[in-house]
């Protein structure tokens, strides 16, 4: 795998601008232009942050431990009434505990598919839904994917994720126990699905996701494992009131903040990736799911 640790020291202002680019309407050209004015070498720093998915694959499509396929299923109340997802099962016989993997704000890109394969290789039945499926699916690049997702009705998109969770939980290959994980936008969906599905979820592990509304937290019945980046002011500002609500409602939870990390540190396709933090957070997530789902 290509070494994706930054060959140059990336200015924090470039990381901050990249976060704005990822979560707002800024186009790539504008991101590069603004980065070039911030500091010497800013353009090179910005260019290095663009994901390189092929080099970041960790589990091969042909890994003998897994079997992967794209599946279609109904989604009443969603963007189109139909959904498509990437279903990855362990090759060993028998039903398996299920984990929904929710993508970032750009559709089902290759990194999220790789995460689903990682889970299946560890014995879980994983489904990574593509929220862009009703409008043609992930387009092959994140810029178009981000624009496409931004144009979707957010309530219908969220409903597609909820229906994906219910489809996975009731799948013939599922043991009936459901875990959820997600990253960025998907981390927020992980939190909100934990509220909406109540006892239908047995474990949830959001990575740097938006907190749900405080009044919804009482509906959470599953234990939570929450991962945060140290340098992520937008997400981290939501944590104190969220934690207060979790305590008030006696929800079991364990938060971790990883020193020296940026939002997106688990994604090994860009230099935001921090290997030690990513591996530790993933080991904790696997151990958590094994404890709660198996």
Give an account of the 3D structure:
The protein has 294 residues and is an alpha/beta fold. Helices cover 39% and strands 21% of the residues. The chain folds into two domains: 12-48, no CATH class; 63-293, Alpha/Beta hydrolase fold, catalytic domain (Rossmann fold, 3-Layer(aba) Sandwich), CATH 3.40.50.1820. It is built from ten helices and eight strands. Strands 1-2-4-3-5-6-7-8 form an eight-stranded mixed sheet, sandwiched between helices. The longest helix has 19 residues, at 275-293.
Mean pLDDT: 93
Q: List low-confidence stretches.
A: 1-6
CATH superfamily of the largest domain: Alpha/Beta hydrolase fold, catalytic domain
Q: Give the radius of gyration.
A: 18 Å
The percentage of residues in β strands lies in 15-25%
Strand order of the largest sheet: 1-2-4-3-5-6-7-8
Count the beta strands: 8
Summed up, the helix count is 10
Main structural class: alpha/beta
Give the % helix: 25-40%
Count of the domains: 2
CATH structural class of the largest domain: Alpha Beta
